[in-house]
Design goal:
Number of strands: 11
Largest sheet: 7 strands, parallel
Helix content: 25-40%
Distance between the termini: 50 Å
Number of helices: 11
Strand order of the largest sheet: 4-3-2-1-5-6-7
Structural class: alpha/beta
Order of helices and strands: HHHEHEHEEHEHEHEHEEHEEH
Strand content: 5-15%
Shape: globular
Radius of gyration: 21 Å
Oligomer: single chain
Length: 354
């Protein structure tokens, strides 16, 4: 923490982006084969062309600093996270000021511990409070951290400090990108402006289709009402005011019970695995083929989210050849209208239900 006060982040060298770049992260159980350079040559060419245009445009040095630092931070973060990309991770948000003797801290410890017991990793902002609690519960091996350089607060907590799975970033927007890009679930405990920002941004990204669907749990301590009060506000001001759709409340779950939070996360991946777009079709990867009865239920209840056609099961599409580790999963393919995101979340619930 003293180092953050004494060093101007603007003048930190590139190698200071990561907390430790000396030790290469150990690969996870399901390593990802790197895409051959030739398959990405068009993207490298595009980036080189953009850099050339920036030089031709005489882009201001201050703007170039933002672009350069952003690229440095993301490159390093991608490197750190890549070996663990096929392991499920939960991002835990919450206050840096919560003390170990407070109920919210103990709630986060229990959440981190039980998610690690289920084989998940835990990502936090790597600071104190709820962030520390999530890592305390998960333990060092199952913890990943995305710290932020601030002139006050926060050094890395004692669990993740010095670990090669820790990345320290200058910009909030690169950090927030990694929080949601690399996780399979988000749990928000009580917190300040930052926690509210992270919870509402995750909701916004899902509601607008900018984030692939994932379980978002707003978790209070057993006697807490932090998120319950926010839920009341959302119902009264947003829902009754017509500012969100009734289906949008399916995008999150409010609870005071860690076991309910964990069940919400694990059940989301009971049959559903992941999603991606192939041209104008949305492709759900599934862990098992759906029964005829389940397909009839889906076609009956969710036809209104289609542009045309119907729901069809299929094998992996030709365009998915770049993901061979997912090739064996069955698919549910449909022409989604890209608007009814709340109902899309309910479709996933239906897929997972008995």
């Amino acid at each position: 923490q003293m180092e953050h006060k004494q060093i101007d982040p603007e003048h930190l060298p590139p190698e200071a982006i990561g907390e430790c770049e000396l030790e290469r992260p150990q690969p996870a159980d399901e390593p990802i084969t790197a895409m051959p350079v030739s398959e990405s040559s068009d993207l490298f060419d595009e980036m080189r062309s953009t850099i050339a245009k920036l030089e031709k445009d005489r882009t201001a040095r201050g703007d170039l600093k933002i672009l350069s630092r952003t690229l440095l931070e993301l490159r390093y973060a991608f490197k750190v996270f890549r070996p663990y990309r096929r392991r499920r991770k939960v991002t835990i948000f919450g206050s840096a000021r919560t003390k170990p003797d407070q109920p919210d801290y103990q709630t986060a410890v229990k959440l981190g511990r039980e998610m690690a017991d289920h084989g998940w990793m835990v990502i936090t902002g790597a600071g104190g409070g709820i962030m520390e609690a999530g890592h305390v519960g998960a333990g060092k091996e199952a913890s990943m951290g995305l710290n932020i350089m601030l002139p006050f607060e926060q050094g890395a907590n004692h669990v993740i400090e010095g670990d090669p799975k820790l990345v320290t970033m200058k910009y909030f927007f690169t950090r927030k990108l990694m929080f949601v890009k690399e996780c399979s679930a988000v749990v928000c405990c009580a917190g300040g402006f930052g926690t509210l920002d992270e919870a509402l941004e995750t909701l916004t990204l899902m509601q607008t289709g900018k984030q692939t669907m994932l379980p978002l749990v707003l978790l209070d301590s057993p006697e807490g009402s932090y998120w319950k009060d926010l839920g009341t506000f959302i119902d009264k001001q947003l829902l009754e005011g017509g500012m969100i759709s009734p289906e949008d409340v399916a995008l999150y779950r409010i609870t005071n019970d860690v076991d309910v939070a964990i069940d919400e996360i694990l059940t989301f991946y009971r049959r559903y695995h992941s999603m991606r777009y192939v041209r104008d079709r949305l492709v759900f990867r599934l862990k098992e083929t759906l029964s005829d009865e389940k397909m009839d239920e889906i076609r009956s209840q969710f036809s209104d989210i289609l542009v045309d056609g119907t729901f069809e099961q299929s094998k992996a599409l030709a365009e998915e050849a770049g993901e061979p580790d997912l090739a064996g999963l069955p698919r549910l393919v449909f022409h989604f209208n890209r608007r009814s995101l709340g109902k899309l979340r309910r479709l996933i619930n239906t897929i997972n239900a008995d």
